[in-house]
Amino acid sequence: MTAPIGVFDSGHGGLTILAGLETALPDEHYLYLGDHAAAPYGQRTPAEIYARTQAAMELLFALGCRLVVLACNTAVAVALRRLQQGWLAERHPGRRVLGVLVPVVEQLTGVPWSVETPPPGPWPPKRRVALFATPRTVETGTYPDEVARRAPWVTVESQACPALAGAIEANAPDEELRHLVRAAAAELLDRVAGARIEAAVLGCTHYPLVERHFSEALPGIPLLSQPALVGSSLADYLRRRPDYRSGPGETRFYTTGDAAFVTPLAGRFLGRAVRFQQVPG
Ligand code: DGL
Q1: pLDDT (tens digit, 9 = 90+) per residue, 132-180?
Q2: Of 247, 263, 268, 278, whose CB count within 10 A is highest?
Q3: What is the pTM of this model?
Q4: How far apart, in whole angstroms, are the C-alpha atoms of residue 145 and residue 148?
């Protein structure tokens, strides 16, 4: 039996990434884990996020995954580099954890992730892009730092959206979600004072559910699709590393929360009904 590809998020948001993976890689199978008991992560401390993400990786490895997609921007921004640099190599050699940030940064910069310094000039004209994310992701500065390191001609204007991921996770009324999106978009547009924004990244895996509200609040600004970018990036990775393919099989869904509560909400994120089960143990 081959190892399923793990997909982890604080809650339901990673299901939007799973949908992107299933579109790009329909012949693989996945094991989804949502840490619903602790969602939302966006307002948790970095120490809590690190500890819970590490525990989730341990669980996915124990359930047989060799490759995990960390489908939570907040966990990626806070924990991924540290996990990859020490713990993963020492404790789980041969296992891989890939984040959702790399494909977005590569798209924004046009520079491969492995390139960590800007190319010699002349550089392309200056560009400005927007990032909407959880307060914790914004506070880490990971997106603007990783972009600036490779493409200093791209400025990332970061905008925290407090309460938005939590409201989406809790299935809040659409009017409330629209209001939260409009408030965040207005704050960013005010701050840039008429400067041209070339594209916007919805840098939280919950936000594709309110994409239409972002489109309405940011007229004329194209939104980058993180699920599509992550899907094609994983397809590329598996072409280079076929030993991490899972092959066909049944995709399963686990939660640290209450499976009976979580199950009926999942279809909105994935576009089809699925059944969650409680994490083992
Ligand atoms: N969906 C997650 C992200 O991509 C986190 C949302 C949350 O739990 O606050 O950032």
Answers
A1: 999 999 999 999 999 999 999 999 999 999 999 999 989 999 999 999 9
A2: 263
A3: 0.96
A4: 5
